[in-house]
Design brief:
The protein has one domain (12-161): Roll (Thiol Ester Dehydrase, Chain A). It is built from 3 helices and 5 strands; from the N terminus they run βαββββαα. The protein has helices at 34-48, 135-141, 147-161; strands spanning 12-18, 64-74, 82-93, 97-105, 112-123. A 5-stranded antiparallel sheet has the order 1-3-4-5-2, covered by helices on one side. Strand 3 (82-93) and strand 4 (97-105) form a beta hairpin. The protein is elongated, with a radius of gyration of 18 Å.
Length: 170
């Protein structure tokens, strides 16, 4: 996917490995392993960006996100071990939730193996109920947003900062 305004790729690409245990009896990646391929790519990105994992890591308590939904569409089987590419980006940011889109690609990015979405909800640590996304999380996530999503988020932030709730000049 590319941003309509910039024509540059949206989000990021992460290389991950397909392992022997990912294959089924037919020598193809088993359908239930595709979410793990996305998860490997996502965690690799977070590690590379210095995101702390787990409460023992000093991660802020408000940084508890859980999966609310997952949707996958399979296009072409992965039939070999080795490196593949996963592209992902934020498609939607709400008050308490966000949605990632992802594409699982061949190593050369020429073949789409699968694509999907993953909805996440930010939870309050004490109540385990949905809680507003923190500014730190939004700032951390900006590199994964399209120009359009950034503009929408900035307009929403400007509206909430306005004393009467209206976007200045609109």
């Amino acid at each position: 996917m590319t941003s309509a305004n910039s024509k540059a790729p949206v989000g990021t690409y992460e290389a991950v490995s397909v392992h022997f245990e990912d294959l089924d009896a037919y020598g193809m990646v088993h359908h239930n392993k595709y979410p793990f391929l996305f998860e490997r790519a996502f965690n690799s990105y977070l590690n590379r960006k210095g995101f702390p994992f787990g409460r023992a890591s000093g991660s802020p308590i408000e940084m508890i996100q859980v999966v609310r939904s997952m949707q996958l569409t399979y296009d072409a089987p992965i039939t070999r071990l080795g490196e593949i590419q996963v592209q992902f980006w934020l498609e939607h940011v709400g008050r308490t939730s966000f949605t990632y889109k992802f594409v699982i690609l061949s190593a050369d990015r020429a073949t789409v193996h699968a694509s999907g979405t993953r909805g996440m909800v930010n939870l309050d640590a004490s109540t385990l109920r949905p809680a507003p996304l923190t500014q730190d999380l939004l700032d951390f996530s900006r590199p994964l947003m399209s120009d359009e999503l950034l503009a929408t988020l900035e307009a929403r932030e400007a509206q909430s900062a306005s004393p009467d709730g209206d976007v200045p000049g609109i």
